[in-house]
Amino acid sequence: MTSLVNPDNPVIERDVVVIGAGPAGLMAAHTLKKKGLSVAVLEARERVGGRTWNGKVKDAKGVEHFVELGGQWISPDQTRLIELVDELGLEAFSRYREGKSIYVSPDGTRHEYEGTVFPADEKTIAEMDRLIKIMDELAAEMDPANPWSHPRAKELDSISFRSWLEELSDDTEAIDNVSIYVASGMLTKPSYTFSTLQAVLMACSAGSFSNLVDEDFILDKRVVGGMQSVSLTLAKGLGDDVHLGTPVRELHWAEPDASTADELNNIKADVRNGVAGNGEAGNVTAISEKVTVKARFAVLAVPPNLYNRISFVPPMPRDQQIAHQHISMGLVIKVHAIYDTPFWREEGLSGTGFGGGRLVQEVYDNTNYGKNFAESTADKEDTYGTLVGFVSDVYAEEMWHLPAEERKERILDAMADYLGPKTKEPIAFYLSDMAAEEWTRGAYATSYDLGGLSRWGHLQNQPTGPIYYACSDIAAEGYQHVDGAVRQGEIAALAIAEQAAKA
Ligand SMILES: Cc1cc2nc3c(=O)[nH]c(=O)nc-3n(C[C@H](O)[C@H](O)[C@H](O)COP(=O)(O)OP(=O)(O)OC[C@H]3O[C@@H](n4cnc5c(N)ncnc54)[C@H](O)[C@@H]3O)c2cc1C
């Protein structure tokens, strides 16, 4: 069998090697360069942007339509991303939201409504308000950078969000509608698989639980030309320092501690208890498929579920080896359906639809605006209408196991529950499949298993020797979002610049 790594790799020397050219890695490299440090960014894919990805889908007439296959929306609290979009000379536009929204209740009844309060019965609305208030209070008590320090961290981390809501309420409709905002809507895992502490972190990171509930806040703006333009523009500024199509396979990062060798059991020296001076400069060698980089620091800017795709030499300390096993990707299908016109607008509808616990639990008007790389015009909205829908966790699993035609029919039928029979006749249809992408393996992001956040979370942002971690999955503000990714990239870069100045 041939090795994945070329033994004749060119070797380059830099201050910092950045692994991963998603928004976090590129922001780290951009910041490091501004601080006068040399960088090399090694990216597994043949493109930059990671979970942000400008794509296309063709209709039967051969017209190409622009679709954002990954992250796209920005909310007003995501201030670092908003500033960056501006710094890079990019523009943002607002999601279409005029007209009535649709709520489909558990019995399948369709309700049109305006504002953010569901047209559920009074008792359910009061119950939802009560649960949201409790979540808001817990989120207000939390520091998103230290959720494990919350006074009730252990208690809230040892109960699933679903069980906790069921302890608080016996109104299933209220529970379904409240849990959707964190479970299928954000972590894209069933609400019985993650803890209440993890749910509170999601809310706290977005400013409050009430913010999560408000789609006009959370899904406020998009970048003209697509969110991947942020990464494409950062990468352009980095030029030849970005190396594509070159997964990092090995990262040499420390000298084993001779005293740990156990000759009796034939165990070699290692760094099981960690190394002295975490965060300080060291000797790092990153071996990727096409290039080897020797550096003083590394930024690991990949989601934590992919850390173990790299062979660390020596193997990571015991704590990290364990901690990294408690964090996993969610699963969601982003559905793109294109129509000759945004027909729902003619019917006085915004295109927004919700239904907790349904196959497609959310739909929105996702009509494109401005110049992108499919058919489009600068400063104008597309004449074609686009709907985006989401099929989360257990439903996503079910859908991927169906034949393609049946899957499409089931999904469009479910979207038609909100916006009527015309929904079933898109001129183009596409499903984002990040779970099948080797260098992502799920969507939108990673989260801890039950109890994992309070036990292991404190390690996630601590450097290991000269290795710094940066990605949206371990962010405080902007957790799981592009904003969190760019914040993390910048934080890691500034910390490295400070250390580099000492060395
Ligand atoms: C379908 C979908 C919808 C989303 N919607 C939104 C949204 O509306 N708004 C929002 O803010 N966020 C959204 N997100 C989340 C957002 O896209 C991510 O939080 C963000 O992209 C994370 O950036 P990152 O740089 O931390 O990681 P990534 O974007 O995952 O980048 C990591 C990079 O590392 C590379 N890599 C991995 N392993 C290696 C290796 N061994 N060697 C070299 N390179 C490697 C990967 O190829 C990738 O390019 C969405 C995500 C998905 C999937």
Automatic annotation (TrEMBL):
Q: Say which domain of life the source belongs to.
A: Bacteria
Q: Does the keyword Oxidoreductase apply?
A: yes
Q: Residue limits of the Amine oxidase domain?
A: 24-496
Q: Which InterPro entries match?
A: Amino_oxidase, FAD/NAD-bd_sf, Flavin_amine_oxidase, Flavin_MAO
Cofactor(s) needed, names only, are:
FAD
Gene3D superfamilies (UniProt xref): FAD/NAD(P)-binding domain
Keywords (A to Z) from UniProt = Oxidoreductase
Q: What is this protein called?
A: FAD-dependent oxidoreductase
Q: Which organism is it from?
A: Corynebacterium intestinale
